[in-house]
Amino acid sequence: MAIPSDILDDICFRFLVNLPEDQKRDPIRVCFQAELAHWFYVDFYCRDLVKYPNCREVGMKEFIRVIFNHCDFLQPLAKKVEQIIEDWRAYKTSVPTFGAILLDSSLEHVLLVQGYYASKNNWGFPKGKVNEDEDPVKCAIREVLEETSYDISAGIKHQRFVQRIVGENPVQLYIIPDVPADFPFKPSTRYEIRKIQWFRLAELPSSRQDRQFESIGHSPNNFFTVFPFVDDIRMWAAKKNQHRAQQHQQTSAFRRVTPRSHKISPAVRNLFDSPQFHSPTPSLVVVGEPLWTAPAYPELPSTSSTPAPSQRQNQQTPKAKTKSQASSASASGPDVKTVNLAENIRLAKAWTNVKLDYSKGLIPISVKK
After folding, report:
1. Would you say residue 343 lies in a domain?
2. Class of residue 59 by CB neighbours under 10 A (exposed 0-12, middle 13-18, buried 19+)
3. CATH number at residue 262
4. How many whole angstroms separate alpha carbon 304 and alpha carbon 253?
5. Using CA atoms, how far apart are residues 130 and 125, in angstroms rounded to an integer?
6. H helix or E strand, kind and range, residue 181
7. Phi-psi category of 121—alpha, beta or left, where left has phi over 0 and alpha has psi -120 to 50?
């Protein structure tokens, strides 16, 4: 067996056995709890090969299959586990995602993150699933803070966002300009973000047909969750820079107006001096190395004395709980609220009818399906 039986007993006791009876009868709810259990298993068993040499990492689907076959009250559903997993994944897809587009002061560089388990060098914006009854702005603030440690609450504006349907998932990203280039970005939870890095906005692919970066190990597919937003970000940045230039002319009638591209902050200017940036080979990266890369974490404590990492705000549904919450799960298991799926789908579809006044510097956000 990929996972030792005694380890499965411990995991089922922590996350499943003590669930309320109504949640035990809901396979979708059980899958969310199994997702928490999977993160816990990876964090506190698979990372400690000295104490648990027989615990190897398994994917989420395989882990859920094992759980349904091991846990007594789930065994009657084991034959239907494949369909249950598909239903659960479809349910998760319907839940809106909120996050932010972080731009430096020149509006020429955008911050992207790479998930800890991302495959094929994929990059995306810091974002995550909304909690039940959570305000979209608060969700975006929470997710960006968790993934980068940067607090966008002071710079976020409720009507300054871009919406797209990425795959089948509705995504709304708030535009945050003037982010300090030298901020010490770092995720606040383990094993969620592997890298954090600035990229040049002008060089990001805006479609799957952009092939100019394949020579340096990047392809449009590495940015498949990014390029649906690229054209609108460029449009907004150009509009914003034009507005800044007009303001500068009004307040500096007797001074020469310096082009915006020459007014890069000292912090970013220093980053441009890196050899990689000036090499003949074009590069997407602003700096030679990522601003943050996941370290080799020290030995983790045994489950019997697991410290409780800092809790994320609120008890979530669909992304539902976070890895930090999974790490500190009690025997009774976290409380899970019911999500109104129909309302989420209605909200996502309603986005297609939303329009903003571009004359005021906002991005048109009609959704491209």
Report:
1. no
2. exposed
3. 3.90.79.10
4. 70
5. 15
6. none
7. left
The first and second tokens of residue 362, run together, are 């906002």
CB contact at 8 A, 363 and 236:
yes
Burial track 299-333 (b if 16+ CB lie within 10 A, e otherwise):
ebeebeebeebeebebbbbbbbbbbbbbbebeeeb
Domain containing 82 equals 5-93+308-338
Q: What is the DSSP letter of 116?
A: T
Strand, helix or coil at 162? strand
Retrieve residue 98's tokens. Answer: 């909120």
- Is residue 345 one of the residues assigned to a domain? no
Residue 239 lies in a domain: yes
* Collapsed DSSP state (helix, strand, coil) of residue 313: coil
Tell me which residue has tokens 């411990």.
10
pLDDT single digits (tens) 84-131: 999 988 888 888 899 999 999 999 999 999 887 666 678 999 999 888
Crossing angle (nearest 10°) for helices 60-70 and 81-93: 130
Read off the pTM: 0.61
- Cα(147)–Cα(130) distance, integer angstroms: 15
Cα–Cα distance, 296 to 310 (Å, whole number): 20
Q: Which letter, b or e, does each residue of 266-293 get, where b requires 16 or more Cβ atoms within 10 Å of its Cβ?
A: eebeebeeeeeeeeeeebbbbbeebbbe
Q: How far apart are CA 44 and CA 41, in angstroms?
A: 6
Range from 182-196, 208-222, 298-312, 315-329 that averages highest in pLDDT? 182-196
The reply to whether 123 and 24 lie within a common domain is no
Domain identity same for 146 and 87: no
**Number of helices followed by number of strands (H, E) in the chain:** 11, 7
Indicate whether 32 and 79 sit together in one domain. yes
Residue 363 has pLDDT above 90, yes or no: no
Amino acid letter, residue 166: V
Is residue 158 domain-shared with residue 20, that is, in the same domain? no
- Contact (Cβ atoms closer than 8 angstroms) between residue 188 and residue 309: no
Task: For residue 159, report the phi and psi dihedrals to the nearest 5 degrees.
Answer: -105, 10
Examine residue 14 and state whether it is found in any structural domain, yes or no.
yes
Q: How far is CA 238 from CA 84, 106, 127, 365, in A?
A: 47, 11, 24, 17
Total structural domains within the chain: 2
